[in-house]
Design goal:
mainly alpha; 9 helices; 265 residues; globular; 3-stranded mixed beta sheet
Length: 265
Amino acid sequence: FLLIVSQVLASAAGMGLDGLNIPAGICNMAAGALYLTIALFLTRLFVEKVLHQSVESVGLTRLRIDGKWIVTAVLLPAAVTGIYLLLPGGFVRSEMTGGEMFAAICAGVFFTGIAAGFVEEIVFRGVILHLIKAKWGPTAAVLLPSVLFGAVHIIGMDFSPVSCLLVLSAGTMVGIMFSLAADRGGSVGSSAVIHTVWNLVMVTDVLHITTAQGAYGSPLLSAVIPWENALLTGGDFGVEASVISAAGYGAVCCLVLLAGRNRKK
């Protein structure tokens, strides 16, 4: 609910600015900043006034980010993208104007990338993870929000059964990856930086790996892959739900768990 309200208010404000003939790129920057600001305000209000807890108890004041998480954030989408780009396919450039490119980049960086990455982590790996961890322990705290994170990406979508299964599986796995990063990193900032960089590379309108030109709107650059296998394409959701992306999520999870085990030894 907090996510939806924050998005709606921020988007409405952005459209209001657009109605004043302010450049679309500036409107998108403002919408991203408002999304993050409104979500932080509403989350803090919810934690303190409804849950009657401090923001410290749900990990919202410690946003430190160790260098290893920044390295992970860069290597994961680079590896997944690199695998797709090495396989057969072709590139299609957008026919956007300069202003449209600027608007698309601003929306991707400020709204889809930074704002969405941090807001979703604050809610899922901040509030929800800490509340479940306090009640049922760390294992439940990692698994339950991750299943929920996968499920919310299906709600309201007209996906095929196979695509729903892929989204739920990959969404749960990526949720586990984010949860482990936040828990082992001691800060929601650890998962937020991974989520943000992933969104910037894989989700924005800058580059899309797709099976058909125009399948995801008008990105600046499309890498068109000539496959129909849902396991490789991610089905209706896209390559984020593919087995290649899932392998990347799983590899990060294994590395985090292995690093934690070695540290204990």
